[in-house]
Amino acid sequence: MGRWQDVAELTGRQHGVISRNQLLALGVSDATSSRLLARGWVRLHPGVYRAPASTPTFHQRVQAAQLALGAPSVATGATAAHLYGLRPPPETLTLLVDEDERAKPPAGVRLRRTRTLIPSDIAEVAGLQVATACRMIIDFAAVAPPPEVRALIIDARQRRLVELDQIERRLSSMGPVPGRGVARRLVWELSPVRCDSVLEDLTRRQLRDAGLPPPDPAPVPVHAGGRMIHIDIGWPEAKIGIEVDGFAYHASRRDLDRDHRRANALALAGWIILRVGWDRLERDPAAFADEVRDLLAKVWSDRAHM
């Protein structure tokens, strides 16, 4: 009874899965292990089993793959990004292993071999060995299109998982590695802007591409209504700002009330605020840029005739 209690505790810590080697270490014989399938266990990989009462999850997929590999590994790239809550789950898992490791990847797993993995590159997420956000981004940059890497960097910064200088320092210490050029260029591009969201970054780039006068490089602090309000994108000399509204905008009545109070405070402080969301920027970016251009021209013209 004691050994099966140990098995239950270990599978509980490992997202419902256990390996044949672990069963042997707990005193479960090969003969008994071979009968697990008849008792409702599910074989996920050769020598890796899911407990009958366990619900399949992405974390379980990663745990099972790491057990099946039979060698130290770290989830990275899109796999780590999903574990951090930054991207949808990928179809194929990506695991990072030492370059000298000769183990073959289990089904549904892509192995990346490296000589640059150091202890500070490794974090733990829900009991899994996962690349830090910094290392995850660098590895993702080696295989993903630059726009996706850019979005991942911005989202990771917004979640306070990484800072740009961390990425730059790690890149400098690694030497030539795949994705280094892409990651370094994106860090350089994002550094002066300090965008807090992917949507804000897209808005700034579309305004720049439309030839508009550059706004302040960072959110503009405005003292209004007895508090400090940060406007996403702003031209302080004209008192014109843009607020970008993501998918979570107005998620509740409290959010709506807070936004109304914010808008009223800015209006009383003399600011004109335009709003924009994903649909407008994706479907009609040129017309929005024209609205901003016309408003800037009108404000500057009115002031010139005062």
What are the salient characteristics of this protein?
3 domains, single chain, 3-stranded mixed beta sheet, 3-stranded antiparallel beta sheet, Endonuclease, Chain A, 306 residues, alpha+beta, 13 helices
Distance between the termini: 89 Å
Would you tell me the structural class of the helices and strands?
Answer: alpha+beta
H and E order: HEHHEEHEHEEEEHHHHHEEEEHEHH
- Mean pLDDT equals 88
Q: What's the alpha carbon Rg, rounded to whole Å?
A: 26 Å
Oligomer: single chain
The fraction of residues in strands falls at 15-25%
What does this structure look like?
There is one protein chain. The protein has helices spanning 2-13, 20-25, 30-34, 58-69, 77-83, 133-141, 146-158, 164-174, 180-190, 198-209, 253-268, 278-283, 285-304, and strands spanning 17-19, 42-45, 48-50, 74-75, 93-98, 109-114, 122-125, 128-131, 220-224, 227-231, 233-235, 240-245, 272-277. It folds into 3 domains: 2-56, no CATH class; 59-190, no CATH class; 198-304, 3-Layer(aba) Sandwich (Endonuclease, Chain A), CATH 3.40.960.10. The chain is 46% helix and 19% strand. Strand 11 (233-235) and strand 12 form a beta hairpin. The longest helix has 20 residues, at 285-304. By secondary structure, the protein is an alpha+beta fold. A 3-stranded antiparallel sheet has the order 1-3-2. It has a 3-stranded mixed sheet with strand order 4-5-6.
